[in-house]
């Protein structure tokens, strides 16, 4: 399942550089996550790095983008192949 940034975001900018897939970007009001690029760091790390560094704990799972670990791994592999 992809992650989402909630409106509790304080725009501290610590999550964006931690994302290995460049899925996090600055939105109009708060940072946002592109669900097509978010793999919850599968293929890169054991845990989502954005969640690890977020000081206000505002990055939960996105219930609108439910994915299994296998699906996240497949997405990671597609992203890596496209960037090669």
Notes on the protein architecture:
There is one protein chain. The chain is an alpha+beta fold. The protein has a single domain, classed as Alpha-Beta Plaits. It has 2 helices and 2 strands. It has helices spanning 49-53, 69-83; strands spanning 24-26, 31-33. A two-stranded antiparallel sheet has the order 1-2. A hairpin with a 4-residue loop joins β1 and β2. The longest helix has 15 residues, at 69-83. The radius of gyration is 12 Å and the shape is globular. The N and C termini lie far apart (24 Å). This is YfhL family 4Fe-4S dicluster ferredoxin. InterPro entries: 4Fe4S_Fe-S-bd (IPR017896), 4Fe4S_Fe_S_CS (IPR017900), PSI_iron-sulfur_center (IPR050157), YfhL-like (IPR047927). Keywords: 4Fe-4S, Iron, Iron-sulfur, Metal-binding. Residues 1-29, 31-64 form the 4Fe-4S ferredoxin-type domain.
Give me a quick take on this structure:
With 84 residues, this protein is of the alpha+beta class.
List key phrases describing it.
84 residues; alpha+beta; Alpha-Beta Plaits; 2 strands; globular; YfhL family 4Fe-4S dicluster ferredoxin; 4Fe4S_Fe-S-bd; iron-sulfur
- Over all CA atoms, what is the radius of gyration? 12 Å
Mean pLDDT: 96
Amino- and carboxy-terminal Cα gap:
24 Å
Oligomer: single chain
- Which structural class best describes the helix and strand composition? alpha+beta
Q: Which architecture does the CATH hierarchy give at level 2?
A: 2-Layer Sandwich
The CATH class designation is: Alpha Beta
The helix tally amounts to 2
For the biggest sheet, the summary is: 2 strands, antiparallel
Strand order of the largest sheet: 1-2
Number of domains: 1
Keywords: 4Fe-4S, Iron, Iron-sulfur, Metal-binding
Domain 4Fe-4S ferredoxin-type: 1-29, 31-64
Protein name: YfhL family 4Fe-4S dicluster ferredoxin
Organism: Reinekea marina
